[in-house]
Amino acid sequence: MIELTPTLDELSSEALYMQLYRYIRDEIVAGRIPSNVRLPSIRRLSAHLSVSRTPVALAYDQLLAEGYIRSKPRSGFFAAELELPASIPSLHAGSRSIVSPSPPRAYHAPQDEPGRYDFGYGSIDLASFPLTKWRKLMNRCLLPENSRLLLYGDLQGEPELRKEIAAYLYQIRGVRCRPEQIVVGAGTYHSLDLLFQLLKKEITCLAVEKAVNDGMKALFKQFPFDYRPLRLESDGIRIEEVYASEAQAVYVTPSHQFPFGMTLSIGKRMKLLNWAKERQAYIIENDYDGEFRYSGRPIPSLQSLDDDGRVIYVGTFSKSLTPSFRISYLVLPPLLLEQFRLRRHSYDQLASPIFQKTLQLFMESGDFERHMRKMRSLYHKKHDALLQAIHHAFKDSADSIGAGSGLHVLLRIRNGMSESELVRTAKKEGVNVYPTSPYALKPEFAVPSTVLLGFGGLSIEDIHAGIDRLKQAWSGG
Ligand SMILES: Cc1ncc(COP(=O)(O)O)c(C=O)c1O
């Protein structure tokens, strides 16, 4: 049974029963009272609303007569199953829905109707998530002695977790920082939003890679910086363009450019750091999947090469652990840290202290390190399987772009199909691949006939089977 809490206006010229009737009718039509849900009894609703039983009984009578509800002997009243037209006209003037018909989807969220083979980029290998260990540690956090975790936490993130993150980043990415420089956030774009709030007083112009993730694009819309797109070469952005841009900060994904996957060469890294030092500018380094590199030596982060406090490092646990916990972090250089501390009262949205504590315990115990070793080897195998399957299926009629690290590659197909045809024909074969044009900063930067394939969430067998299906889908082009 549901409770109903309409706003009834005793002073209105409209009778109470009519107000109540309209309210329930609209709620049923809009689906907010789902079909077959039991409504409160007349006695209960009149008590709840502090009105006599008469208006409630009259409203129910009217709804019954019009078929919006049905009554079942000795059980009560139930919302009827309505055959609704695709678009429901508003039933009373002035009632306008403030909720968009489909709420915005988190980027990379799984599709409503994923195909049999979903090369979704936001997925991870679910079967490998250490559920048992995590559950055990989380249970520990929920013991009475840890009840302080039920309260607000430290605005900058739980100090013990920051200590673990600092140690981890040093080992895995060469990042040199003290735990006090770390600010824990609830996802990369939350962290970057916070950073942009800090930077907006200091900078007006931001140079950015000419293709960026959709979360980044959404963020750019909210901050009125002068954005200068930077072209991409096989070894990353052009440093001359950074100089020419007059920007006071640059946003880059140096380990694995998103989405093209190239790595910023060491030569360019040094030049970029020089630029930042000369211009007293900032480099925002988004190292979203820097832990996963499958060939050659690990490439140290830009932050690890920075002696002048110009790099702001951004990272996330979305790839290394799971996107669902929403834990990310910023490593702020000392100058910005001061700014953050001065204005920290405005930034009080943190990842949950319970999840932070669980993560800290997970890292402290060595389980995270073991998990990372396992995932690196597993994703390496999946990566190789994907490249092999692509080569086998398409030979010279396709290029894989940006392989060698991370959890996705791009595929450029030369069969005459456009990007949207590639996506559509794949879907007909039960395979989801993803367009790359939404990542272009401007429509003219989009590259033709290129789709994105994430491989983290698929088994090796499914990677092979999915690519086989793509071959069938695209061979008729
Ligand atoms: C460039 C980039 N940064 C960060 C992320 C992760 O974002 P979040 O930490 O909000 O899950 C992604 C997506 O997975 C991404 O593509």
Automatic annotation (TrEMBL):
Q: Which domain of life does the UniProt lineage start with?
A: Bacteria
Q: Where is the HTH gntR-type domain?
A: 14-82
Query: What are the names of the required cofactors?
Result: pyridoxal 5'-phosphate
Q: Which Pfam families match?
A: Aminotran_1_2, GntR
Keywords for this protein: Aminotransferase, DNA-binding, Pyridoxal phosphate, Transcription, Transcription regulation, Transferase
Q: Which InterPro entries match?
A: Aminotransferase_I/II_large, HTH_trans_reg/aminotransferase, PyrdxlP-dep_Trfase, PyrdxlP-dep_Trfase_major, Tscrpt_reg_HTH_GntR, WH-like_DNA-bd_sf, WH_DNA-bd_sf
**SMART domains, per database record:** HTH_GNTR (SM00345)
A single GO molecular-function term is: transaminase activity
Output the CDD domains linked to this UniProt entry: AAT_like, WHTH_GntR
Q: Does the keyword Kinase apply?
A: no
Query: What's the protein called, per UniProt?
Result: GntR family transcriptional regulator
- Origin species: Aneurinibacillus migulanus (Bacillus migulanus)
Its taxonomic placement starts with: Bacteria, Bacillati, Bacillota, Bacilli, Bacillales
